[in-house]
Amino acid sequence: MLEVNGIAAAYGNIEALRGVDLTVDEGGITCLLGPNGAGKTTLMMTVAGILKPRRGSIGFLGRDITGMKPSGIVRRGIALVPENRLVFPDMNVHENLIAGAYLWLGKSKAQVQQDIDHVFTRFPRLQERAKQMAGTLSGGEQQMLAVARALMARPKLLMMDEPSLGLAPLVVEEIFRIISDLNADGTTIFLVEQNAHMALQVADHFFLLEQGEVTFSGKPGQLSEHEVIQRAYLGKGQGRNQPEPEHGRPDGTTL
After folding, report:
1. What is the DSSP string of 24-85?
2. Phi, psi at residue 13, to the nearest 5°?
3. pLDDT (tens digit, 9 = 90+) per residue, 23-82?
4. CA distance 237 to 162
5. CB-CB neighbours of 26 under 10 Å
6. Phi, psi angle pair for 196, to nearest 5°
7. pTM
8. What is the pLDDT of residues 108-142, one digit of tens each?
């Protein structure tokens, strides 16, 4: 479904990705693990068209989307739930959902409302808070809103960047249940996550990213969970060492 071939990306003179190769299979949950600073968010932003790659190519459903504008990539069927949720705090829940449908405003109001009703069915808590300002929602509710807003674009591939970041353990469990439910309903998921324990419970395939390069690709169980966590948090793969992460613990809480 998604094919990333030799992608390199940089911030000025700092190269964050050094030739990344990975694939996301249609219908599954693919997880990208790695220590802070490994380039996980950079890869997500590059696939989404927010950052332009220095070299390499990105294919989606058999078409080259390398360097395409973010709006074009959304239209192709890729939606990103960004790190730290980034809802519009001064807009209410309903208005945030309308913003998620901005590329489809050629549809009738009835069609847009039908999509809103659909996400409210999936997230009844958001329906209860439809007129509440997004900035006053709890962290878990904001994460639900960020996911619901992305679903308004009717994505074939939903990319999620650190959905459990900063959330309490019980809320993390709920977020991962939502991820599993979305996948069961046919949405392909590409997940960046620091919570390796939870990610490995839902993933069909995972990649380890260290210092801007993929150092392992496999299915859960091919490495012991202890080794995965050591490499995902501390970058201890292939003789490398990374500083300890600034945020995120295996239980989903922050430092």
Report:
1. E-TTSEEEEE--TTSSHHHHHHHHTTSS--SEEEEEETTEE-TT--HHHHHHHTEEEE-TT-
2. -90, 0
3. 999 999 999 998 888 899 999 999 999 999 999 999 999 999 998 999 999 999 999 999
4. 21
5. 11
6. -60, -35
7. 0.85
8. 677 788 889 999 999 999 999 999 999 999 999 99
